[in-house]
């Protein structure tokens, strides 16, 4: 297992594995309402078994080289995470996603962790395009995309249903030559 420091505040980025399902589920319980405002991720971990299944799905994706999931720990407490929801190495494309519980917001954790993922995808894996898909209502996530130097490619109007409400989906991206410069 690796641990990657996210800075001087003691925050760390670590792989999130199925054996950590209890800690992951407790984290989801603490942040479920906040996390679920804009994404369905928290809905997928509704109990311990489904939390373990979600982490196992990502372990299977990691084994197939089609996705990965990492937790963000602050003072040795899981407070959020980042992931490659999709990785298509032959096509040179990956999609980064994130979540965070409310107590950990405003510290730059998602931006710092996402930089590490994007840098690895582009510099180590040869990914050409990294995408960030976000509800138009999710201003904090859009701000992260901007801080990462991503460009807004467009808006897919009324693209998905979230908690009974149609949402627009913004597509943001950064290309390898832009990231390296």
Protein model, in words:
With 181 residues, this protein is α+β, with helices and mostly antiparallel strands. It has one domain: 3-Layer(aba) Sandwich (Aminopeptidase). Helices cover 34% and strands 35% of the residues. The protein has five helices and eight strands. An eight-stranded mixed β-sheet has the order 1-2-3-4-5-6-8-7, sandwiched between helices. β1 and β2 form a beta hairpin. The radius of gyration is 16 Å and the shape is globular. The two termini are 31 Å apart.
Give the SSE map:
Elements: E1 4-5, E2 12-15, H1 21-35, H2 48-64, E3 68-74, E4 77-88, E5 93-100, H3 109-124, E6 129-135, H4 139-147, E7 151-162, E8 165-175, H5 176-180
Parallel strand pairs: 5-6
Antiparallel strand pairs: 1-2, 2-3, 3-4, 4-5, 6-8, 7-8
Helix pairs in contact: 1-2
CATH class category: Alpha Beta
In the residues, how many domains can be counted?
1
Strand content: 25-35%
Based on DSSP secondary structure assignment, what is the total number of beta strands? 8
Distance between the termini: 31 Å
Using the coordinates shown, work out and report the CATH topology: Aminopeptidase
Shape summary = globular
Organism: Lentzea waywayandensis
Keywords: Transferase
Domain N-acetyltransferase: 11-178
Pfam families: Acetyltransf_3
């Amino acid at each position: 297992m690796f641990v990657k420091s996210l800075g001087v505040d003691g925050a760390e980025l670590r792989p999130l594995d199925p054996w950590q399902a209890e800690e992951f589920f407790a984290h989801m319980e603490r942040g479920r309402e906040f996390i679920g405002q804009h994404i369905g991720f928290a809905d997928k971990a509704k109990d311990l078994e489904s939390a373990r299944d979600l982490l196992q799905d990502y372990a299977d994706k990691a084994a197939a080289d089609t996705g990965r999931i990492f937790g963000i720990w602050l003072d040795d407490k899981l407070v959020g995470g980042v992931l490659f929801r999709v990785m298509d190495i032959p096509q040179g494309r990956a999609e980064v996603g994130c979540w965070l519980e409310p107590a950990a917001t405003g510290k730059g954790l998602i931006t710092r962790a996402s930089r590490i993922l994007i840098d690895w995808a582009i510099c180590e894996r040869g990914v050409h395009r990294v995408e960030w898909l976000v509800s138009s209502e999710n201003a904090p996530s859009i701000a992260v995309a901007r801080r990462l130097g991503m460009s807004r490619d467009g808006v897919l109007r009324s693209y998905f249903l979230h908690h009974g409400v149609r949402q627009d989906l913004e597509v943001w991206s950064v290309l390898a030559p832009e990231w390296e410069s």
